[in-house]
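Sample 1 of the test manifest.
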Amino acid sequence: MKNTTPTPDPRIERSNRSVLNATRELLAEGRDVGSLTIEAVAARSGVAKTTIYRRWRDKWELALDAVMIDMLPHYYADPPDVGDTRKELLTFIDSVVGALSMAPYGPAMQALVSEIATHPELSRVYREQVVEPRRAQLAAVIARGIARGDLRADTDVQTLHEFLLGPVFYRMLLSGSPLDRKLSARLVDGILQGFAPRPGTAASRRRLRR
Amino acid sequence: MKNTTPTPDPRIERSNRSVLNATRELLAEGRDVGSLTIEAVAARSGVAKTTIYRRWRDKWELALDAVMIDMLPHYYADPPDVGDTRKELLTFIDSVVGALSMAPYGPAMQALVSEIATHPELSRVYREQVVEPRRAQLAAVIARGIARGDLRADTDVQTLHEFLLGPVFYRMLLSGSPLDRKLSARLVDGILQGFAPRPGTAASRRRLRR
Amino acid sequence: MKNTTPTPDPRIERSNRSVLNATRELLAEGRDVGSLTIEAVAARSGVAKTTIYRRWRDKWELALDAVMIDMLPHYYADPPDVGDTRKELLTFIDSVVGALSMAPYGPAMQALVSEIATHPELSRVYREQVVEPRRAQLAAVIARGIARGDLRADTDVQTLHEFLLGPVFYRMLLSGSPLDRKLSARLVDGILQGFAPRPGTAASRRRLRR
Amino acid sequence: MKNTTPTPDPRIERSNRSVLNATRELLAEGRDVGSLTIEAVAARSGVAKTTIYRRWRDKWELALDAVMIDMLPHYYADPPDVGDTRKELLTFIDSVVGALSMAPYGPAMQALVSEIATHPELSRVYREQVVEPRRAQLAAVIARGIARGDLRADTDVQTLHEFLLGPVFYRMLLSGSPLDRKLSARLVDGILQGFAPRPGTAASRRRLRR
DNA sequence: GACTAAGCGAGACGGTACGTCGCGTCTTAAA
DNA sequence: TTTAAGACGCGACGTACCGTCTCGCTTAGTC
């Protein structure tokens, strides 16, 4: 009987890995945006340009692909329930700040962001692969925070998500201030202040009772 | 009496204007990042490529220059004191949202952000010419807000600035959500909640008295 | 049986020919030196500039290459032994005069000569590909001339070569006199006078006996 | 009474000299043709580009002008009558060989020859200023040679001129052989052989009688 | 001895071509 | 069939000089 799921050509997997590794190396070394070129990736990886173009439309898709692999561990496991909303929010936002402070992820995102903003296809991939998983994780944290009475019942995930991540990216891209833990703390505290239940509401009473 | 300010070569001013106009036109038309080329600017403006390179190091400096002119009116006049902190914050953030929703400013910023993030020189210019003026305007609004008792006395300009602008840029660049007035309102309300004086403090009492 | 000489990419040969043809056309049309530009060759030939630069270091190598092809038939076949030294010398020098009177060869040589004189690499190629073959042909003619007793036994090829070609190039380049058959005849007659055996020598006696 | 020949502005003479000197310096230094640029001449001489263009149509006119000054002493004084035709011819041709072996004259001529050959205007100047004076000098030598019986009465100046100078330029430009005194000697001896009166003619008898 | 206009330096301008880089496509030969 | 190797057409890059132009300043030579 024939193999129903035919073994894929092992060369495919091998060249794939070579290309992504070379890409990450070049991104980590590269002083700026343009230092990542398909030609350089081909030379570094020993994979023919043709083969690379067969699998990625352009250098930006490739870069996004290569770089998202680095991100995976950062949101693959949901932040665990530690019984403390502040801590969980910190864990969440720290993982983002940490990733963006790391080479090659940080510099690569700086270089990629214009492409993502500009090209719908890249934008779609980024949202599906990066934004959505993060939102889902944050949603879980928020749900627990509401249950604990640390957050108002009507707290909106989308809003919180933007309040938390927006400033991080703004710093990384434009404002020039450093990305650090103090930022995370300030963000979380700001958020908790803003979205804490008002005194006198059911939620706040529930909270005080503890 | 002698001419104290010697007439500069009028061609300088003329070519300058032509180049910046052509740049803005191309940015407004351009489907994506790369559609702005020095060659195209030269062709469109009737100014020689060499002349362009004489004044701008590369296309990004040129684009930033061209585009900042569009921005000027948006922060040239400080938001007036209308006696209502919420309204003033809305005015402030709406001017940013408005600018970023406009062609060529919005698309141009999408294209420029990677370059700004990557090149220290561009970054410096952007901070000095755009970030700082905005911060100064916001500082004035905040000062009045504190005086009115709408904001806590220890409200930090930098923090508020990042809370307000971060989400706006995050949307424009990555999250894919639309830039609109609802966003402005949500941001301002979130901020006011988070930074309103706590009940029972001096500031809150002062506020209630009114 | 397998193809022992692997098929080269046919585009190579095709683009090569296109470029050389375009070069010759432009040289033939060109009013002056500078009218041959790589850009024009690229445009005319439909071959990309990069491809041209891949194969020729600069326009002068290209021009020399293109132009030497025209020259080949002029010295490819040795002047035949017709039993008459004067006629053979005339045939020899006429082929040179003829080539230099022809477009694009003549104008091209006028334009090239400074480059050849200046760049060792071009100079080497010119000597190997043009000067040497001609000298070899002249050597054969001279050998026969000596055998016939028309030229002194110690007649030096190098000297004769310079006496014959020098004035031709001098006219073409500097003196402004026309290149024509009268020149050829005068050169050959001068040479024969100068290099004929002196009366009373063995050679002259041999000559008279016939 | 009015000054009929008004004193010319002395600045004209001064800038003229500066430009020509700078040109000669650059020609002497320059590795190749293109290293002489009007911009470099302007920079070196401290004279404005405008002023240079006011006086010379292009760099080749300038170069020819600059370089011909070096040549002047070489043909300013006619070769004196020393009573020996061979010596006088040697003196004549040595002065040419000497000039062409000298920087900047030699390299400059190598670079200029294509321009002279190509541009009628330059050609005219070269012929009038260089070729003609030399021909006149040679004519005097030849006349004395004929009078002495060393040359046939029908010796043609033009022919001799080309026989003598052609090989010199051919070497300098194309054949790659060195320019030296041996060449001069060989040329003169070849010429004297070729143009000596035939035995038995009136001229030869006159010659023998001495 | 002041005045005017010619000649000048400085340097920006529009332009042509340069020679290079990287793109994304295409062709061949080997695995 | 898929790959590595690498040539190709292409578009833009950023540079070098070209030859032209505008602009005050300097400096003669004239009134």
